[in-house]
């Protein structure tokens, strides 16, 4: 009986072994989920949202047509799309390309970066432009055009395109400073983008007080970013921001101007501060800047 049963089962096993499963590469991959918008929550700022999604705050402002001082409200939908529809308004103006112009010469005349012009107009290297082409120039929150060096065409277009309404005073940033450690301590975790470490962790050796690594303006102070705890973000220029996370308490408010001598927060019980520096929205190694 056992031999008979074995005789019938053996062919089935052989057939099963010979059947070929579908190759992995022929199977359809699942659809990727891409976040294209963000609903503003209580306490969030444009800068904290940009930080959350690793975006440049200027680009986020342009995408959503936000003007200085970039006010947003709870429940507001912020677009995160990488596409920008150039428009004149806020701090933007329009320039008509003339013969002999280059993107570099235009950026020099307007005292803005070449990258900012390329970004808002969707230009890629080698940045070819043609006479008669219209470019939108983002003047930023602290840039002004040099009236003496701008050609008549620029003055005419800028005046025609300037938004009406009260003039808003913009933040001014000091330039005569060097980076300093936010506290005296030792690095217990280094910067490593390969391991998703966008900053460093510094363990306290003397005082639980945190000071800004550079002077600037507070653009976020709160606990709305997951994984950062009580967080302070400081804007040092239109390009550079720094962040101080996992604090016990926060000693500053959004909009406050601070120097390197002003305390901004206190350490929590583990006595470790998490510190980041970002340039143009991208994390950079703080150890390359700290003195």
What does this structure look like?
This protein has 291 residues and is an alpha+beta fold. It folds into two domains: 124 residues, Roll (Membrane-bound Lytic Murein Transglycosylase D, Chain A); 104 residues, Glucose Permease (Domain IIA) (Distorted Sandwich). It has six helices and 14 strands. The strands form three sheets. Strands 5, 6, 7, 8, 9, 10, 11, 12, 13 and 14 form a ten-stranded antiparallel sheet that branches. It has a two-stranded antiparallel sheet with strand order 1-2. It starts with a helix and ends in a 7-residue tail after the last strand.
In short:
This protein is of the alpha+beta class and 291 residues long. It has helices at 2-18, 46-52, 57-63, 103-110, 114-121, 152-161; strands at 37-39, 77-79, 92-96, 134-138, 185-189, 200-204, 209-210, 216-222, 230-235, 240-250, 257-258, 265-267, 272-279, 282-284.
How many separate helices? 6
Assign an overall shape: globular
Strand content: 15-25%
CATH superfamily of the largest domain: LysM domain
CATH fold topology of the largest domain: Membrane-bound Lytic Murein Transglycosylase D, Chain A
Contiguous runs where pLDDT drops below 50 for at least 5 residues:
21-33, 141-170
CATH architecture title of the largest domain: Roll
Q: What is the helical fraction, as a range of percent?
A: 10-25%
Pattern of helices and strands? HEHHEEHHEHEEEEEEEEEE
Oligomer: single chain
Separation of termini?
86 Å
